[in-house]
Amino acid sequence: MEEQYNIKIPFGQLRLGKIVFYDLNRGMARVELSNSTEMAGDPLTVSITIPVGVFSNDGIFVGSLSKINTPVVVARGEGTNWYFVSYVASRNNSVKLPDLKEGELLIQSSSTNKISLDTSNNISIGSDYSSIHIDTKKGSINSNFKQNLSFTEASREVSGIIKRDLKPLNGFPDSLKLTSDKYDGNLSEIALDPKSATSLSFSGKSKNPPFIEKREIIYEFAYSSNIKDDLTESQLYKKSGLKSNEYSLTDRRLSRSDTLSLSLVSPNYLMETVKGTVVDVFGNILDINRFPIPIGSKDLTLKEDKSGNIKDDVFNLIRAAERKSIAYHFEINARKDLSSKAGVTLPNIDSKADYARNRSRFFIDIDKEGQLKMNVPSSSETGNISLLTRYENSSSFIDEDKDNPNKLILNQDRLDIFHDSFAKENGDITIKDETGVATPKDRIGNLNIKHGTPYHNIVGLNSFVTFSPELSVQFLDFQHNNQIDLMSFPTIANIASPEIIISGTKANAGGRSGSLNFDGSIELNVGANTVDRQSIWLDTAGSLIAMLGRDKNNVSAALSLDGDLVVQIGGNGITEDSRFSKSNNSYRSGALDIRVMNEGFTVTIIRVDKTGVTIATPGKLSMKARDIDLMAEGTIRINGDNVFIQDRLHHIFPPTSS
Predict the structure, then answer these.
(1) How far is CA 369 from the centre of its chain?
(2) How far is it, in rounded angstroms, from Cα 274 to Cα 256?
(3) Which domains occur in the chain, in start order?
(4) What is the CA radius of gyration of the chain?
(5) How many CB atoms lie within 10 A of CB 366?
(6) Which listed site, 45, 97, 524, 630, has its alpha carbon 20 to 30 Å from 28?
(7) pLDDT tens digit string along 436-449?
């Protein structure tokens, strides 16, 4: 029947109609023509190719499926073929034409989802309320979306209202929990009272504003490489391979709401940063020890009681508790030496041995009162040793291209960064590996850089704890009492080892947590705690080695103590560190050794040790007091060239035997 009417309709005539059906398999649409019926009263319909805006055989396409009953204009072509001419844009009750502006190109699917380009260099994507605005003339991008989610091969970033999976959707595929918009809609917002419903404005008797976070996780390798722990990954490189595990529970690390879960069982999650309020995966607001703050409990809730009232001071109580929450968190999933005689082994999470150093990670947590908590792991025996060097790129000092500092020179060894040491005398501790010296050469001195400090030679500190023949006390030799022999005092061969090995079975470079260099002075002011009025707790597992310079007044240390000075020397050592299990860590007696260097390489010594007290000086020893009592269970000897008692000279001649 259609063909009969097609013959009657003149060639090229335009007809108004509406789309009534799509045949997607054929790429065709059916159009019902207006004001045209058959003899039986049925409307006339014609077939056209589905109308689109732009189409090209190379894949370029602009278009959409218009809703059924969308008005169109069609025209008859050669034979019985019909073609789409245009849509009919009119302002009537059934068709809503958007508000158009002169010079604007508009693409929209609804009033809240559109793309606008105008002749004033503006591009807007979104709606009138939430959009990305690009000004190509000013070179600026502005976005006012409430939530910003980014998932790349390098990182995952969540910025907006804190949302957590409080009712885990075990039936939801893990593979979609990171990027799926449907999954995001099932997450719960975490608010001032995390146990109550979120309310941005006053609803009832209170409002419960949601917390925000800007959370980012950086991967070590591309996310899609699906890196497992080192034990699992190492098996993949063996011929036997590794059987895959089929787990039944949800994988927390594939979820966008996962947080605070860095561990070597999942080493590809290299570092994490959280700004705002730190909330764990179960929606708990955490204090600086990462322990849940009981907000939402009986006494700290915005919920109404049985009488329909909310406690008057509950808001202030919640805010006081919430001040303990973490506002900034940064953590690095620190790499560890997992090798052992049994091969690669993951850290035992149930072991506290060696202070659980093999589970230590670098982190900085700062709570909302500004209190800082920081942990710095120690290096492995083959880890880095920080050298005191300045850095220069090859382009800045290689004499080519007329001293052009911006030149790019591809050296034969492909070395770009060169070092020069500012340690005293290029350092005094040699760093070696299994083949020899393992440090770069100083580009200025052309010698291998050594480890050291800027102002003194640490190894040279040996002069403090040993005696050389040049040092003397210059005593006369009595027949009955030999001269004090400085060489008889206990000495230490090396206060600091002159050599460190960074590789192989004898590597001993470990146990280092940082190297801080300040070119200028530090002014440090430390307050006191409330409970004990104490300012600094210093607890070291090893010794303190210090060499102090002097100021213009020749002062090396000036201390003013408002209270007593209490010093204990000797006692029990540390027994929990397996690296030093062969050392004497039990109780031992101590010694106080004070040496004052005098003119002419002489030395004054005060030594207190297990033998007693020794004072030796090449100069005068003076004592003045209201009363002096000398008591001994043994012998008291007083000898000298001239001995005065009560200003009366007593000659000892001939010398008496002891």
Answers:
(1) 20
(2) 13
(3) 2-87 (2.40.50.140), 104-143 (no CATH), 148-375 (no CATH)
(4) 41
(5) 18
(6) 97
(7) 999 999 999 999 99
